[in-house]
Design goal:
- The protein is α/β, with parallel strands linked by helices.
- It has 2 domains: 192 residues, Rossmann fold (3-Layer(aba) Sandwich); 51 residues.
- It is 30% helix and 32% strand.
- The strands form 2 sheets. Strands 3-2-1-4-5-11-10 form a 7-stranded mixed β-sheet, sandwiched between helices.
- It is globular.
- Bound molecules: S-adenosylmethionine.
- The site of S-adenosylmethionine has 21 residues, from loops.
- S-adenosylmethionine binds next to loops.
Length: 251
Amino acid sequence: MCSEAKSWWREFFESPDAFPLSCFPEPDVTVHQVRGIKQLLGLRPEDLVADICCGHARHTLPLAAEGYQLVGLDISEMMLHVARHLATEMSLRLRLVRGLAQQLPFADGVFDVAMNLFNSLGYMDDDDNEAVLSEIARCLKPRGRLLLDTRNKKFQILYAPYRQMVTLANGKPALLQCNYDRENSRLNSVWTNGDDPADVYHTASIRLYSPAEIEDLLTRAGFAVKSRYSEYDGTTFQGFERQLIYLCTKR
Ligand SMILES: C[S@@+](CC[C@H](N)C(=O)[O-])C[C@H]1O[C@@H](n2cnc3c(N)ncnc32)[C@H](O)[C@@H]1O
């Protein structure tokens, strides 16, 4: 296994810094995304929907608020804590489960729809990343739909913040440096004290898959790719955009 693929994500998403450093889209963008999710997936009230790697339930909660049936899963206790707090504030009851995406704690064929959104695939080594997709396929009904919102490898390599000052949750500055490891196709990031590079706050390492590689993973997991988008409004992916969003069905 590539040494960078160790479980950095388990620490990273337990830190309040995960909020500013993940650059979650603004609320108005999430509203627009939720509208797109409903349309792209053709969501029906009777669908049982799994949001795998739901984070603080940015999409899960507004969909549940509209009456859809959602289950959110994430490994981060901190993210789930925020999600539960928001659910209480919204007087919503929905299942938020702590678990691993590569070992889903759900029975075979229970969900009509699954989502894996905002670049949540690729944190682990190839075997575990692939296991996430095959686990999602296992838990979907036959012809179940998957919306996978992932990174466009080319865009990431060109436009990654190779050196940028950012702000941590406590308001302190940090220096973000990214480095693309071509041999392992991983984008490695380190956040340090700008005055002392040995003072490391966080690290991250993400396997960047080309469209052909992702489609290979999806096929092996048992999915048929129906459409490729660059935006939640259904704009077709051309090859150069930031996001690559797949609509798939279980074969
Ligand atoms: C970038 S956030 C995206 C969250 C959410 N989908 C959104 O759009 O806001 C990635 C999330 O995936 C979770 N995650 C990453 N790897 C995971 C794994 N193997 N199993 C479960 N959760 C995981 C993290 O804890 C984090 O909350």
